[in-house]
Design goal:
By secondary structure, the chain is of the alpha/beta class. Helix content is 32%, strand content 23%. It is built from 11 helices and 17 strands. The chain has an 8-stranded parallel sheet with strand order 9-8-7-10-12-16-14-15. The protein has a 7-stranded mixed sheet with strand order 2-3-4-5-6-1-17. The protein has a two-stranded parallel ribbon with strand order 11-13. α2 crosses α3, α3 crosses α4 and α3 crosses α10.
């Protein structure tokens, strides 16, 4: 369980390993996307099993009309991690990413950063891995068909994670923008899926045992209506992740057994913001540890109201740090001042004049 947070033997404590976007892509491809997702899912599941050890707080959010910027911190008492992340749905119209992120892992005992990494790609991977972990406990047995409604940046990661962990190999895709569906289908070609491009959300859910919604609009929306969803399915609601943004009709929630990451955050940001503040939900960590029931029968409708929580990012940072101990996909940043005398920071500055 102990993470190696110094993946190399740097020349001094001032050096912090940095994983750029280019190196993150190299690392993922070196490991293999399916393997990376499966291993990352195991780290997430391990950390959910020790959920009670972590500091927990709803993410710190700064909202605007255009989107949101958030900080997501946590610590297990030995290692501290945080992620900076934004969500700006209108960015795509300007050729920009909806979500970008970076993260830091630090040593609690010294306070020194031990890893700095991009997390735009890593967030997409950890979101998909978390969805698949939840589905291990909540999806119908032997489910092999998933509808993905919303075929943007998250869709391929979701598909591959569900294949890696659950064996899902049939996809029914729909997006209001047909070019997004075409993009998703093309990207997943050769990954072992049978893919159907659908003309509506209603068509996409037909015959699917797992329904994933991953849309980006920052508004109350109804991607799935009550009459579209039959009994026995598992709904993986990914898109709703801030106040005023939902994807499911309220009646679906009232019919479902609802599972969440951290209720104080999900009640603000998730689908359940539509419900009474005391509406009963189960916490995923309690299902994983056997303290609460997950799926109990074939006719049960389960909903994972996923908003993303800091412990999942901690798991992803921890996984990457461990991978770097054997794979040199990082740069060394001279990031921390390291004077010979810790009390003489000014002297270190002045001596630098003579070095120019």
């Amino acid at each position: 369980m102990n993470t190696i947070i110094h993946p190399s033997t740097p020349t001094g404590v001032n050096i912090v390993p940095f994983v750029s976007v280019d190196n993150m892509m190299r690392l993922v491809l070196h490991v293999g996307v399916e393997t990376f997702l499966a291993e990352l899912a195991a780290y997430i599941e391990d950390d959910f099993r020790r959920w009670e050890r972590f500091d927990k707080t709803p993410r710190i959010a700064s909202h605007s009309r255009e989107g949101v910027i958030e900080l997501m911190p946590t610590s297990d008492g030995e290692t501290y991690g945080f992620k900076y992340v934004n969500g700006h749905p209108k960015n795509t119209k300007d050729g920009l990413q909806t979500v970008t992120a970076f993260g830091v892992l630090s040593n609690v005992h010294t306070g020194y950063p031990a890893l700095l990494t991009e997390m735009t790609i890593l967030t997409a991977l950890r979101t998909a891995a978390t969805s698949a972990v939840a589905a291990k406990y909540l999806a119908p047995e032997n489910a092999d068909t998933m509808a993905i409604i919303g075929n943007g940046a998250q869709s391929e990661f979701q598909a591959i994670a569900f294949k890696a962990l659950l064996g899902v190999d049939r996809l029914r895709l729909f997006d209001v923008d047909p070019s997004a569906t075409a993009k998703c289908a093309a990207n997943l070609e050769g990954h072992g899926f049978k893919i159907a491009a659908c003309r509506s959300a209603q068509e996409a859910v037909e015959g699917a045992q797992i329904l994933t919604t991953a849309t980006a609009d920052k508004q109350y929306a109804t991607i799935l209506t009550d009459n579209m969803v039959g009994s026995g399915v598992h709904i993986n609601a990914v898109g709703g992740d801030c106040p005023g943004k939902t994807e499911l009709h309220r009646d679906i929630l009232l019919r479902s057994d609802i599972f969440v990451e951290y209720p104080p955050q999900t009640r603000i940001e998730g689908e359940i913001q539509q419900l009474d503040p005391d509406h009963p939900v189960e916490e995923l960590w309690q299902v994983i540890t056997g303290r609460a029931a997950g799926r109990t029968g074939p006719s049960q409708m389960t909903l994972f109201d996923s908003v993303g929580f800091a412990i999942e990012d901690f798991s992803a940072l921890r996984y990457v740090a461990d991978k770097l101990s054997a794979a040199p996909y990082f740069d060394e940043l001279d990031m921390l001042a390291d004077p010979d005398d810790p009390r003489d920071l000014f002297g270190m500055l002045m001596r630098a004049k003579g070095a120019d």
